[in-house]
Design brief:
The complex is a heterodimer. Chain A is mainly β. Chain A is built from no helices and eleven strands. In chain A, strands 2, 4, 5, 9, 10 and 11 form a six-stranded mixed beta sheet that branches. Chain A is globular, with a radius of gyration of 13 Å. By secondary structure, chain B is mostly beta strands. Chain B is built from no helices and eleven strands. In chain B, the strands form two sheets. In chain B, strands 2, 4, 5, 6, 9, 10 and 11 form a seven-stranded mixed beta sheet that branches. A four-stranded antiparallel beta sheet of chain B has the order 1-3-8-7, with no helix packed on it. Chain B is globular. The chains are: A mainly beta, B mainly beta.
């Protein structure tokens, strides 16, 4: 079993829909990261959080430390949100970043 | 403030050759991490350098090596290239050790081994 699991693997939605991407982890962590990778490879850091909730524009990230779970929400989704969203946690036995496999999101106009 | 710069952006090499990739982190950042991403795969951690010292190493063969200079610029080297080394190689810089602070990624070097 992977230490970081993301769901769903793939998600297709219509423009304007509310999107939720989930990340569950099995190790103790000090921080959790959400990143976005567009076609072509560029990766952008969206959030780093260790508790509670953060909001940036239409993006909201939450984390529940007790349940070892985080969610990334996108409100009023737009085709430009189409990308792969990656969750990574700082933790584990050697304190490396442990990466999820990513969620591929497609927003149709 | 300049972002993370990786050079070259694209590279084609022949099996058996060796290659050196470069990463210049954001000014003031001391941590550089390297990742390999193959088509359809997630990011695979190669190694992390912090203040010229390798802090962590992923599960890659010894053909993959790296170093960090006093100005925090980092290079990774792959010797005796294999077809399976074709991938996007990404580096990320951060102020502190990997994962403790926000990471900023370069655009990557796309390596094709033929």
């Amino acid at each position: 079993k992977n230490e970081v699991e993301q769901s769903p693997q793939n998600l297709t939605a219509q423009e304007g829909e509310f999107i939720t991407i989930n990340c569950s982890y099995s190790v103790g962590i000090s921080a959790l990261h959400w990143l976005q990778q567009h076609p072509g490879g560029g990766i952008v850091s969206l959030f780093m959080l260790s508790s509670g909730k953060k909001k940036h524009g239409r993006l909201i990230a939450t984390i529940n430390i007790q349940e070892k779970h985080s969610s990334l929400h996108i409100t009023a989704s737009h085709p430009r949100d189409s990308a792969v969203y990656i969750c990574a946690v700082k933790g584990g036995s050697n304190y490396q970043l442990i990466w999820g496999a990513g969620t591929k999101l497609i927003i149709k106009p | 403030k300049a972002g993370v710069t990786q050079t070259p952006r694209y590279l084609i090499k022949t099996r058996g050759q060796q290659v050196t990739l470069s990463c210049s982190p954001i000014s003031g950042h001391r941590s550089v991490s390297w990742y390999q991403q193959t088509p359809g795969q997630g990011l695979q951690f190669l190694f992390e350098y912090f203040s010229e010292t390798q802090r962590n190493k992923g599960n890659f063969p010894g053909r993959f090596s790296g170093r960090q200079f006093s100005n925090s610029r980092s290079e990774m080297n792959v010797s005796t290239l294999e077809l399976g080394d074709s991938a996007l190689y990404l580096c990320a810089s951060s102020l502190g050790p990997q994962g403790n602070t926000e990471a900023f990624f370069g655009q990557g070097t796309r390596l094709t081994v033929v």
